[in-house]
Amino acid sequence: MAFVVAIDGPAGTGKGTVTKIIAEDLGLVYIDTGAMYRCVTLEALRKKVEPVECDELLQILENIDIQLIKKEDGQEAWLNGRNVSKLIKTPEIDNYVAQYASLKCVRDVVTPLQRKMGKNNNVIMEGRDIGTVVFPDADVKIYLDCSIEERANRRYKEYLEKGVEVSYEEVLETIQKRHKAETEREIAPLRQAEDAILVDSTEMTIEEVVAEIEKIINTKKG
């Protein structure tokens, strides 16, 4: 029987970094579900298909090939045979991903793919609705949160390290808009599952967050 760890939470809380480290430490398969929605967003923008054009989006989804490939330093996202790991982590994708991810036609295709990935593996899966929708019976559920200002500050620093020219104010505005869209959408809104354990990383280092979550997982595994 597969062992599933679900880590949900908003953008900028450190989910990706933390989940990768825990996966390596505990021998779990790391799955970044957000990358899948980013791939859909990238392909839609490339083909100039708006979020309101569900028929056109369905055509894209029928032919889309998304592969999440494990590497020594994390995970690569491949879209239709091309490595798009860097392309899906740009401010443009950040601005649009919540719009596409909120659509029923998109989630009806992507959610089953996520379940398939975690069906026969011991996984740690991060996203927005893993513990509430994708794997409501996950063995461990974590809701990783953080103040919105700190989330914007972390994302801003990430962009600077990558050489992306953007202001803190622009990043904060994007984070605020995205949070509003993700928590207020009708389908699979971002929320803490009733049986999820809250971990607030605002005042914590990455090492402290990792230690806290690994303690929770190890306690559950006995």
How is this structure best described in words?
- The protein has 222 residues and is α/β, with parallel strands linked by helices.
- The protein has one domain (4-214): 3-Layer(aba) Sandwich (Rossmann fold), CATH 3.40.50.300.
- Helix content is 52%, strand content 17%.
- The protein is built from nine helices and eight strands.
- The chain has helices at 15-26, 33-46, 54-63, 91-101, 104-119, 130-134, 148-161, 168-184, 206-221; strands at 4-8, 29-32, 66-71, 74-79, 82-83, 123-127, 140-145, 197-200.
- Strands 2-6-1-7-8 form a five-stranded parallel β-sheet, with helices on both faces. The chain has a three-stranded antiparallel β-sheet with strand order 3-4-5, covered by helices on one side.
- β3 and β4 form a beta hairpin.
- α1 packs across α9, α2 packs across α4 and α4 packs parallel to α8 (168-184).
- It is globular.
- The model has no long low-confidence stretch (mean pLDDT 92).
In short:
This protein has 222 residues and is an alpha/beta fold. It contains 9 helices and 8 strands. The strands form 2 sheets. It has a 5-stranded parallel beta sheet with strand order 2-6-1-7-8, with helices on both faces. It has a 3-stranded antiparallel beta sheet with strand order 3-4-5, covered by helices on one side.
